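Teaching note: in complex prediction, the entire set of molecules is handled at once rather than each chain in isolation. The prompt given to students was simply: 'Predict the structure of this complex.' The entities are:
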Amino acid sequence: MLIVMESQTSQEKIQKVIEFIKLKGFDAHVSNGENHTLIGCVGRKVIDKRDIELLSGVKEVIRISSPYKLVSRVFQPDDTVIEVNGVKFGGEHVGMIAGPCSVETLEQVDETAKQLSEAGVKILRGGAFKPRTSPYAFQGLGEEGLKILRQVADKYNMAVTSEIMEVGHIPMFLKYVDILQVGARNMQNFNLLKKLGEINKPVLLKRGLSATIEEWLMSAEYIMAGGNREVILCERGIRTFEHITRNTLDISAIPVVQKMSHLPVIVDPSHATGLRDKVAPMSKAALAAGANGLIIEVHNNPDCALCDGAQSLNPEEFSYLYKDLQALVGVLKKQF
Amino acid sequence: MLIVMESQTSQEKIQKVIEFIKLKGFDAHVSNGENHTLIGCVGRKVIDKRDIELLSGVKEVIRISSPYKLVSRVFQPDDTVIEVNGVKFGGEHVGMIAGPCSVETLEQVDETAKQLSEAGVKILRGGAFKPRTSPYAFQGLGEEGLKILRQVADKYNMAVTSEIMEVGHIPMFLKYVDILQVGARNMQNFNLLKKLGEINKPVLLKRGLSATIEEWLMSAEYIMAGGNREVILCERGIRTFEHITRNTLDISAIPVVQKMSHLPVIVDPSHATGLRDKVAPMSKAALAAGANGLIIEVHNNPDCALCDGAQSLNPEEFSYLYKDLQALVGVLKKQF
Amino acid sequence: MLIVMESQTSQEKIQKVIEFIKLKGFDAHVSNGENHTLIGCVGRKVIDKRDIELLSGVKEVIRISSPYKLVSRVFQPDDTVIEVNGVKFGGEHVGMIAGPCSVETLEQVDETAKQLSEAGVKILRGGAFKPRTSPYAFQGLGEEGLKILRQVADKYNMAVTSEIMEVGHIPMFLKYVDILQVGARNMQNFNLLKKLGEINKPVLLKRGLSATIEEWLMSAEYIMAGGNREVILCERGIRTFEHITRNTLDISAIPVVQKMSHLPVIVDPSHATGLRDKVAPMSKAALAAGANGLIIEVHNNPDCALCDGAQSLNPEEFSYLYKDLQALVGVLKKQF
Amino acid sequence: MLIVMESQTSQEKIQKVIEFIKLKGFDAHVSNGENHTLIGCVGRKVIDKRDIELLSGVKEVIRISSPYKLVSRVFQPDDTVIEVNGVKFGGEHVGMIAGPCSVETLEQVDETAKQLSEAGVKILRGGAFKPRTSPYAFQGLGEEGLKILRQVADKYNMAVTSEIMEVGHIPMFLKYVDILQVGARNMQNFNLLKKLGEINKPVLLKRGLSATIEEWLMSAEYIMAGGNREVILCERGIRTFEHITRNTLDISAIPVVQKMSHLPVIVDPSHATGLRDKVAPMSKAALAAGANGLIIEVHNNPDCALCDGAQSLNPEEFSYLYKDLQALVGVLKKQF
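The expected output is the structure of the full assembly:
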C-alpha cells in the first residue's frame, strides 16, 4: 500500500500518518518527491484504505497487492482445466451445458435430455430450487426435481448441474448433482461459498448482477480458500441502464478474467439477454471472444415452460445452433 | 395484462395469440383500435410476458396489475408505524438507530452504547456476522457478538438490531436481537426472507446494491406474505459508474417508495457514501426528503475499528449531528 | 397511447382524463375491463405521457407507437446497404475501417495507411478535431489534419472518415472526408445532426456513452428526417460500474438494433475496451454477433501515439487479426 | 505519476520502462520496496497512463496529480461566490432560479414571471433552443424566445438564464441572457466550452447524464482555462438502472464537489426526477445536503406546457415550496 501525501503537507502531518500505520502493524518507508511525499506501507495486515485517506494531509491511498491470491495467474500461471463426464472447461477446451430453466416433470426433462444427448450434450442443467423475484411465482420442485435430474441424466449418461441456494442443502445436492451452481443473487452469500470450499465437486459460480470482476474473483477466492480448486466462472450479464435486453452481456469480461485468473470462464447467453432470438448470436460472440464454454437453456416446449420460456430454445433450435458453434470453434482453434 | 398487436396483423395471428393465452388459463378481450388490435388478458395466473412477446404479430405486452400486493398502498392506504423500544418508524415519526459496524469487544460496545444512550439513542446496531468481500478479512465474532450486544443493550435500556446471513441462525438471533437486519447482499436470499416472514419481530430490509425499487418491494412482499407485517425498508446507496463515493445514495427513492408503499423507509448514510465527512450532509438530506429514520455507524474509536472505520463517526461527532437533526426535524414538522 | 386507470376509479376521474386528452387533440376510446378501465388515445400529436400519469386516478400510460419512424423496419423492411469506395456495410456485407486515433504527421498517416492498404483496407480513419476530456491534452491538427488524411487516402485509393464536432465545420469536412463521423459525446448534439441530415455523404453515428438503444435510433432519425438516408450506426461501449475496461461493449445491441432497424451497425472494439490486447477478441465477438463492420485503431508506432496509443494495434498486429477475421467471416456466411 | 512494477520483475524490464518514460519527457525516480519496485515519473507532460500499463512487467500506473487545476481547492481554497442581479451562489449563500422549461408565448412567460417575481425570485429560467430526443417534438422558439425572456425579465427586474447549444449562437445569447446555461448533453461539447471561456458572463454547467464528477470538473476547467472564472455547477441527476424516476439525483455529489472545488454547485430537482410531486422533497434534500442553490421548473399552466409539464410546478405550488425552503435554510444557517 502506498500513501500519497498532499503537496506542501507539514512534517507534523506526515509524522502522524506514519504513527497511525505503525499502530496498525505496518512498516513505513518514506520517499520525498518533487511535489508529493510518498509513504510505502509494508506488512501482512488487512486495513481499509479509507481509514488512512481520512487522515489530515493524505491525498490518496493506493492498494498495490491484489486482494485475491489463489485465483490469480501469479499463484498459478497455467490454465485450470476442469473435466466433468468427459467434458473439459479451460485451456483450448470448450464445454457445453444445456437443459431447461426449471425441472417441471419427469417427462419434460426426459424428452429434453434425450434430444440434447442425441445432439452430443453431456452435461444437463435444470433448476429444482428457483430464486424467483415474486413469492407468488413457481418456486421449483425441490428435492423431487433433483431426483428427476439424476434419474434422467443416468439414463442418458449425462452429468447434472443445478443451483443451490442454502448451506443446509449441500448434503442433498451432493447426492444428486455433479456441478453445484451458485446463482447471481448468491454470489456474495459468503457462508454458502465457504462451505462449498469444503466439498469435492466443481462449483459453477455466476457473476452477480452488479458485481465487479474483482468482486467475482474474490467470491471464487472464498471457495478456493476452503480447499476446493474446481471453480468454473460464469458471466451471465450485468445490470445497466439499457432495458431492452434483460441484462447486458459483458463480453469483454471474458478476456479480462482470463488475463487475471487461471480459472475457466463460460457464458450464459440465455440469462444475459432474456430473449430467445438473441441466444444464437450471443453464443457465437462468447466463443469468438474466447469463452471456455456455454450454458444454454433448452426446453422441449418453451411456450409451456413454467419459467423463462421466453429465453429458452427448443431442442431443434439448439441442435441447429450447436452445429454452427462446432464449425465456429474449428476456426477459432478450440475444441468442444 | 394487455397485448398490443402490430399494425396490420393478420386475423390468423391474432387468433393464435388468443388461443395461446387461453391455453395459459386467461380470458381474452379483443378490442380493435385504429392502428392496433389490443387483447386484454384477464386471470389470476402468473405468466412471463416475454412468452407472449415472442409470438408472431405481437408488438408489446403490458403488465397492468402490480406484482406486489401486501406492501402496496392499495392494500393498506395508511402508513405502517413500527414501534421498537418506544421508538417509532413511519408516518410523522422519525427513528434513530446507531452503533458500530462490527462488535469487537465488550468494552468497545459498552463505551459506544453508553455515549449513544446519553445522546438519546434507544436502538443499538452492531454486526456479529459480517459479510466481507475478502475471505481474509475479519468475519465477526458470531454468537459471542450477539451476546455482547444484548448484555450492553440491557444495561442501557436499548433495543438491538444486527444482520442475519443464514436461515439456520434465526433461532439464535431471536434470543438476542429485537430487529433482524437483512443486508444488501441478501436482499434476494429468498429462503431467508420466507423464514423471516414467520417470526414475530421486525425486519430491517436493506435495498440490494443494484436492486430496482420494485424488486426491493417484492422482497418485502416475501416477508409480508409469510405473515410478518413489520418490515422497515432501508435505502443504503446503489451502484453506479461514480466511484468517488462507495455507492450513490438514491435520495429520490424515499418519496417514490412512500408513494407506492405504506411501509416506513429509513436511510443508511454511512454505507451509502462510505465517507465519514459525508454522513452529516446525507443524514440531513435524508430527513429533508422525508425519510422515516436513520441508521448511522458510530464507533468509540473509529481509527481503530476493525471494519469500516472510515465511515464511522465518533460519539461526539454523532452527538453534535443528532442535535442538528433534531432542529431540522422540527422545521420539517416531524418528530424523533 | 393507452391509459390504464386505477381499479375502482370514479366515473368523474375517468371523465376528467377524457377531457384532458381531448383538449390535447386526441380522440378517446374507453373500454371497461374487469379490474381496470382503459382509455385509448388516438391522434397524431406529440404528448409527454408523464402529463397524463399525473392526473388523478391514472395508474399508467403506455406508449404504443414507436417514437422513430424512418429508421425502423416497419418503414423499410430490407437492410440498408451503404457502399463507400467499394466497401459495403449492411446485409451480408461486412466493412472494415482502420487508422490512427489522431492525425499527427504526414509521415505517420502515410506509413500507417500504406500498410493498411496492403492488408486490404479501403477506408482510412483518423481524428483531426479531437474531443479531449482535458483542455491541456492534444486537441488535434484541425483542418491541416483533414488535408493530410485526404492526401494520403488519395495516394492509396482509400476513402476517409473523420470526426466532426461543430455545425460550422460541415463545409470543410465535405471537402476532405467521405464519411462524416459523429462521436459519442455529440450523439445528442441535435443541431449538428439536423445539418448532417442535409448532406449527401454517409454519416457514421456512434452511440453515446449512456445512450439507450432507442435514443441512439432517435438520433439517427434526426439525420434521416433531414433527407440523408445513409447512416451507419456504431456501438462503442457504454458506461457501467465495471472499471477495468474503459467501457462495456454492449454486444447484444447488435442483434437488437438489427431487429428494430434496417440500418447497418458496426463496432469499435478499440474505444469499447480501451485496451490493445482486448481488440482482437472483441473484433471476433462483434462479427460473430452479426456486426456489419468494424472500425479499428491502428498506429504505425502505438508507443509514441499522441492519443490512445494504449488501445491501438500496430499494422502487423492488425494484419494478423484481419486474416483471422476473414476466416471467421467465411464460417459466418458473410463477406468483407 | 507512479509506476508499480510486478513482483520479481527483471532489471531489464525495469530498465525498459525507465527508457520509455524518459523518451516521453519525464524524469524517473526508482525505489525498491519489499515486493515491488516503484518508479516515480516527474514532469509536466501529459501522458496516457494506459500506454505505460501495457509495457511488460508493469502492474499498475497511478496518476498522482489532479487533472484539473483552476477549479480545485488547491488553486483557490476559498469558496467562489457568484452574484447575479443581487442573488449570490456560493459560500453561505443559496440562490434560486425558476421559470418554465420552454418559452412558448409572451403571455405564458409574463404570467409565470410575474408570480415568481412576487414570490421573491430574481432570476428567470426558460428554454428558447430545446435539445429534444425526437426530431418531431417542439424544438423551441429560437431567438424569438430569447427576446421574450429579456422583455419579461426587464419588466420584473429579473435576470435571465437560458440554454445555449451551439458556438455560433454565443453573440445572440450575449445580447439577451445573463447566465448562459450548458445542458447535460453538451457538457462535453468542448468547442462550446472553450468559447464560453472567453465571455464575461457566468456559465451554468450541468452535469452530463453519465459524467463522473471528475469529468464534470474537467469541463468546468475548460471554461476557466479560457479566462472565465464564473462557473456555477448544476447537478441534475445521473442515469442508472432505476427507471421510476427519470434520473437518479446524485445528492452526495454536492459535498463531494464542495470538497474538491471552490465553485458553487446547485441542484435541478425537476430534471433529476422528472416528477412534479418529487420536486419539493428533492429541493429540501438538496439544501440540507449543502447545495448553493436550486433551479426549478415553474409553468403558469403545467397541464398545457409544450415540454416537461409533468415535472413543472405551478406558481402557487412553487410559492408554497419557497416558503418551506426559506424556513429550512434558516435552520441550516444559510441564506437566500
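Point out the following to students. The domain at 82-331 of chain C is CATH 3.20.20.70 (TIM Barrel). The CA atoms of residues 136 and 275 of chain C lie 23 Å apart.
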